[in-house]
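name: query_chain
kind: protein
chains: 1
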Amino acid sequence: MIKLIPILISLLIIGLFLYSKLLPYRDKLNPQYKKTFDFFNSLFSPVFNFLKKRIKPFQVGLGLSIDMSQIVLLIIFLMLLNLF
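structure:
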């Protein structure tokens, strides 16, 4: 069981990366990949909504800011992966 946890966290990190890259193109995905995307969307959307209420976007320029929720979630996953 302990060996399975790092694998699951690694899959979540990969899923987070692919989710962030495919989010703008979700309507163009093939049905096979749309199911996988919807699975990760159902996992990450509630977490992102929760984090967006508590963490302000980070301003990096004039009228330009970064949503920190994905970065915070990635840091959490990496810290968990480091524990195991």
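note: The chain has one domain: 4-83.
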